[in-house]
């Protein structure tokens, strides 16, 4: 195990055992400033030429899928009225697009960046889960 994993596990254990507080003002600094800086700092060390060469057609497929998801989101947004969400309807469409491109973390990040209210965020996620469950049932039968 490397140092990052060990320190994470020790921190989790200490917090769960009550040795350190699970809530502190310093945590907001970490989550709001330091954590968002971590990804760009990691990317500065990445060898993009090697990355593109090693992923080959996978990166092309991802980019095609991302563009298709973006176009599909725009078309669906125009076809399906989401009046019940009010002014946040386009924000939820953008967040769901992010979710289908990069996962649930993207859904939360896009929602937060666009200032989606918690109730609309939950409604969008619930509706997406229902539609996805119906879609999977249709595909399996």
Task: Report what the structure shows.
It is a single chain. The protein has 141 residues and is an all-alpha fold. The chain is built from 7 helices and no strands.
The total count of helices amounts to: 7
Distance between the first and last residues' Cα: 44 Å
Structural class by helix and strand composition = mainly alpha
- Which percent range fits the helix content? over 70%
Kindly provide the radius of gyration, computed on alpha-carbon positions and rounded to a whole number of angstroms: 20 Å
| Strand and helix order | HHHHHHH
The counted number of beta strands is 0
Beta percentage is under 5%
Largest sheet: none
Low-confidence stretches: none
Mean pLDDT: 85
Shape: extended
Features:
mainly alpha; 141 residues; extended; single chain
How is the secondary structure organized here?
Layout: H1 3-16, H2 25-44, H3 48-55, H4 57-79, H5 89-102, H6 104-114, H7 118-140
Quick structural summary:
This protein has 141 residues and is mostly helical. Helices cover 80% and strands 0% of the residues. α4 (57-79) packs antiparallel against α5 (89-102) and α5 runs antiparallel to α6.
């Amino acid at each position: 195990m490397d140092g990052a994993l060990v320190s994470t596990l020790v921190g989790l254990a200490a917090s769960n055992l009550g040795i350190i507080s699970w809530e502190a003002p310093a945590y907001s600094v970490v989550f709001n400033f330091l954590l968002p800086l971590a990804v760009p700092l990691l990317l500065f060390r990445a060898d993009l030429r090697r990355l593109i060469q090693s992923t080959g057609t996978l990166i092309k497929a991802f980019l095609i899928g991302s563009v298709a998801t973006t176009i599909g989101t725009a078309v669906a947004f125009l076809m399906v009225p989401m009046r019940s969400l009010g002014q946040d309807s386009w924000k939820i469409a953008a967040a769901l697009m992010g979710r289908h491109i990069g996962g649930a973390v993207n859904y939360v990040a896009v929602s937060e960046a666009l200032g989606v209210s918690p109730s609309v965020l939950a409604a969008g996620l619930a509706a997406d889960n229902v539609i996805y469950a119906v879609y999977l049932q249709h595909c399996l039968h």
